[in-house]
Input
Amino acid sequence: MSTVQRIVRVETSLLDIPLKRPHRFSVLTIDTQAVLLVRILTSDGIVGIGEGVVPGGPWWGGESVEGMRALIDGYVGPLLIDEDALRVDYLAQRMNRLIAGASFAKSAVEMALWDICGKALGAPLWQVWGGYHRAELPVTWALGAESADLVVEEANTMLASGRHTSFKLKMGASAPADDVARVAAIAEELRERAHLSVDLNGSWDEATARRWLPALDDAGIGVVEQPLPAWDLAGAARLRHRHRLQIMADEAVLTPVDAVRVSAAHAADVFSVKIAKCGGISGLRRVAAVAEANGIACFGGTTIETSIGTAAAAHAYCSNSAVSAGTELFGPLLLADDIVEKPVEYTDGHLLLGDGPGLGVSIDEGKVEKYLRK
Output
């Protein structure tokens, strides 16, 4: 195999994959996940695959799969032609210099480049990056912002099956008093049987958080993810020092520079890291390095990926010592179907690390055709 893998083509496809049940965020509900599939072909015939997904559209990070596709087809693809796909970090930095923002689009491309790298070397990505710290990852199951009865029913089903004992509850879709009462009722039903955290997606202001965080603490909630808007680091720091609850930063930590700022402001106990929001695995590893240097644990987040993005995250999280606060890589479990020949494996609430070359998953062309957006 050649030591140089010249890029000859970059292809994109849009897919729409149904969910097993609707998933409600603070601002919208989805029953289908849109997926941007990226394939990069090299002169030696290697095909690298990557995916870009956003949780419900542009409300979260400003990107959509439609916009990502246009950017890759019109700008990123031409930029990569004739370049050596094995120079992954160099190409990631080149994309950053020539294209502002667009972290989700860039991450999909970089994922495919890493897949090529692993396939060219005949090694799984965790081995390319120096080996793994853990061979499996605990997976928190995300429960939407539905009524307490529906959420408890779903959680009880998970507990009875032995699949999950850790749950994250979405908040922010209703008035704070009603929302907190709903979470408290759920927590009471699951008391001493499950670990619970909540995610507000920045929907509260500091006064609201100061009023209602004690009630969440009393209910037994351990972690509150992004209670305030991403810009309010001073407010997050005050909350963190005033309450026992751990504060997790998500929307506030996209880049290594963000990680430095949040660390310096003492505004978080935990960082949520995600390949997509960090602009790729290279960016995620830099964010995690800042976190580790400041004594902050990282939690492996998700944007509800298929087995492609989930496998990439498994390699990235398992090979990084800083990602020690668990994960929520439940995407393939929430999707009604997958687009790979052999989906990633779960057992007893844990995601298992694969050992195939590159990402270790292969496209099921029949499934791609089935869900291809016409």
Observations:
- The chain has two domains: 7-126+365-371, 127-352.
- The radius of gyration is 20 Å.
- The domain at 7-126+365-371 is CATH 3.30.390.10 (Enolase-like; domain 1).
